[in-house]
Write a structure and sequence with these properties.
By secondary structure, the protein is α+β, with helices and mostly antiparallel strands. The protein is built from 10 helices and 23 strands. Helix 5 links the parallel strand 17 (about 330-335) and strand 18. Helix 1 packs parallel to helix 10. The model has no long low-confidence stretch (mean pLDDT about 95). Bound molecules: S-adenosyl-L-homocysteine.
Length: about 475
C-alpha cells in the first residue's frame, strides 16, 4: 500500500474496504489510520481521498474503484452516491443481510454479554425496493449536486424538490426517481415540481424564510390508497388550490389530498392543523391477522405513526406473537405502543392488553383503531413510560403476565427496567431498532431473565438499520 500526499486532500492508494461500519459507511485501515468511507462495498479495492482527519479516525471518499468486490451489484437508483438514503445498495442483498445479522450478534455479545448461539437467521424482505409507505420531500431554493448543471436543461431550475443533502442543512437533492416508494410517488413528486416551475410557485428558502412551497408528504397503503399533503409557508391559498386541483385531476388514485400552512421557522408539522382539500382525512392500512384472526384495519391520519414497511411489519409482529405464546387468561402490556398496532395485533390472544405511549395523538389513534376493529379488551394510556409504569399503575391494570416493549433508539429508561424486574412478567418480548441499547437493557434484565429466541428482521433494505426481537423468560418461575 502506497501513500502519496497531495496538498488537499490526502490521497490513499489501493485500499481494501473491510466491513460495514456505523451510519451506512464502511471501514478500512491504511497507514495507521482507521478510515470511514460511504458508498463502497466490503472487498472493494479503492483509492480514497481523505477529507477529514481526527486523532482516532479519518473520513474519506472513494475516488477510484480499482477492483470491485465480488459482493458488488449495480446501483438501482440514479441518485446513489449523492443521496444518503440507501448507502448499501451496491452490496448484494444476501451480503447486506449477513452484515446486519453479524452486527446484531456482535453487539449483543460484546455490549450485553448475551449468548447468541440460538439466534435465528435474519428475516429478509421479499421486496427490497419500493417498500416504503411514506416519504417526505422538501422544497428548497438551493439544490445540492455533485456535478455542475448542464447548459441543455429544459427548464431553468428554480430549486430542488427531494431529500436533504447529508450534512448540508439548507440544500436539497432534486430527486427524479426514488426506488423506495411505489412508482406513483415518483410521478406525483415530479408532477408537483413541473407544475410549480411552470406556474412560478416559489420554493422555500430556509435561510431567508421566504418562498411558498415547503414540503410534500406522500403516503400509501398496500391496497393502493394514497394520501398527499402539501405544506406551504403562507395562509394565502390562491396559488395552492390550482396546484391541488391539478393533482386531484391528474391522479385519481389520491384518496386523501390535504395541506398544511406552516409559518414557523422549522419544518415540523406535528403541532399544525391539517386541512382536507379532497377525499378523506385518513387512509386505512389492512394487515392480515395472526394465526387465522380476522384482518386488522389501521386508520392512518396525516400525523399518525405507522411502520413504514408494512409487509415487514406484519412479519415482525408475527415473531412477537409467536414468542409471546399468550394464553387466553393473560394480561399483556404493550409498552411504547405508538398507535397501538402490536397491542391490537395480539389482543385476540389474551384476556386484556394495556398499551402505553407518550404521544397523545397516537394514543387517540390507538383507541380509534381498537373501535374500528371491534376490539374491546384493549386500554391505552398516555404518558412518559418512566412516570407511568408505577406500582399503582400495575395495581390498577393488573400485573402483566407478558410484556411487549418496543422503545425508541435510546432503549428503556433504567426506571422502566427496574419496574419490569419488580413486576416480573412471565416473558418480556423486546423489539428493538438499536442493538446497542437493546444489549445494555438485556444485560440489566439478565438479573431475572434468560434470553431465549432472538430474531433479527430487516425492515429497511439498503440501509444499515436493523430490527431485533428478543424473547426473555423469567428464571425460577
Ligand atoms: N410499537 C409501535 C411503535 C414503536 S416506535 C409500532 O410498532 O408501531 C416507539 C414509540 O415509543 C413511539 O411511538 C414513541 O412516541 C414512543 N415513546 C418514545 N419515548 C417514550 C417514552 N419515554 N414514554 C412513552 N412512549 C415513548
Amino acid at each position: 500500500m502506497k501513500m502519496r500526499k497531495t496538498k488537499e486532500p490526502l490521497l490513499l492508494h489501493e485500499v481494501t474496504i473491510e466491513s460495514a461500519a456505523a451510519e451506512g459507511k464502511a471501514v478500512a485501515h491504511s497507514e495507521g489510520m482507521v478510515i470511514f468511507v460511504p458508498f463502497v462495498v466490503p472487498g472493494d479495492v479503492v483509492d480514497i481521498a481523505v477529507y477529514k482527519r481526527k486523532k482516532n479516525y479519518a473520513e474519506g471518499r472513494a475516488v477510484a474503484l480499482l477492483k470491485p468486490s465480488p459482493l458488488r451489484v449495480e446501483a438501482q437508483c440514479p441518485h446513489f452516491g449523492t443521496c444518503g438514503g440507501c448507502k448499501w445498495q451496491t452490496t448484494n442483498y444476501t451480503a447486506q443481510l449477513q452484515a446486519k445479522e453479524q452486527q446484531v450478534k456482535d453487539t449483543l455479545e460484546r455490549l450485553g454479554h448475551v449468548r447468541t448461539d440460538s439466534m435465528r437467521p435474519i428475516c429478509g424482505a421479499d421486496a427490497t425496493f419500493y417498500y416504503r409507505n411514506k416519504l417526505e420531500f422538501t422544497f428548497s431554493t438551493r439544490e445540492w449536486r455533485d456535478t455542475p448543471p448542464s447548459d441543455t436543461e429544459e427548464h431553468p431550475r428554480c430549486g430542488a424538490l427531494g431529500f436533504h443533502a447529508p450534512t448540508v442543512f439548507d440544500k436539497v437533492i432534486d430527486i427524479r426517481h426514488c426506488a423506495l416508494q411505489h412508482t406513483l410517488s415518483n410521478n406525483i413528486r415530479n408532477e408537483v415540481r413541473q407544475y410549480a416551475q411552470q406556474h412560478g410557485l416559489a420554493f422555500y428558502d430556509i435561510r431567508n424564510h421566504s418562498g411558498y412551497l415547503r414540503n410534500l408528504v406522500v403516503r400509501n397503503t398496500e391496497a393502493g390508497e394514497w394520501m398527499v399533503i402539501v405544506v406551504v409557508a403562507e395562509p394565502d391559498t390562491t396559488a395552492l388550490f390550482p396546484l391541488l386541483e391539478h393533482l386531484k385531476n391528474q391522479f385519481p388514485q389520491i384518496s386523501s389530498l390535504q395541506y398544511i400552512v406552516n409559518t414557523k421557522l422549522n419544518d415540523s408539522y406535528s403541532d399544525l392543523d391539517v386541512v382536507l382539500y379532497h377525499g378523506t382525512s385518513c387512509i386505512t392500512e389492512h394487515m392480515e391477522g395472526y394465526d387465522g384472526a380476522p384482518a386488522l384495519s389501521y386508520s392512518i391520519n396525516p400525523k399518525s405513526f405507522y411502520q413504514t414497511n408494512s409487509r415487514q411489519a406484519r412479519k415482525l409482529y408475527s415473531f412477537v406473537a409467536e414468542m409471546a405464546e399468550l394464553q387466553s387468561s393473560d394480561t399483556l402490556y404493550d409498552l411504547y405502543t405508538g398507535t397501538g398496532t402490536i397491542a391490537l395485533f395480539l389482543a385476540h390472544m389474551c384476556k386484556k392488553v394495556v398499551g402505553v405511549e407518550y404521544v397523545e395523538e397516537a394514543v387517540a389513534d390507538a383507541r380509534l383503531n381498537a373501535q374500528l376493529n371491534h376490539i374491546d379488551n384493549a386500554t391505552f394510556v398516555a404518558g412518559d413510560m418512566a412516570q407511568v409504569l408505577t406500582d399503582s399503575f400495575v395495581q390498577t391494570h393488573g400485573r402483566p403476565d407478558i410484556v411487549v416493549t418496543d422503545p425508541p433508539r435510546a432503549g428503556m429508561h433504567a426506571k422502566v427496567i427496574e419496574q419490569l424486574l419488580q413486576c416480573s412478567p412471565r416473558k418480556i418480548i423486546y423489539v428493538s431498532c438499536n442493538p446497542a441499547t437493546q444489549a445494555r437493557d438485556l444485560e440489566l434484565l439478565g438479573e431475572r431473565y434468560d434470553v431465549q429466541r432472538l430474531q433479527p428482521v430487516d425492515m429497511f433494505p439498503h440501509t444499515q438499520h436493523v430490527e431485533n426481537v428478543a424473547e426473555l423468560v423469567l428464571r425460577n418461575q
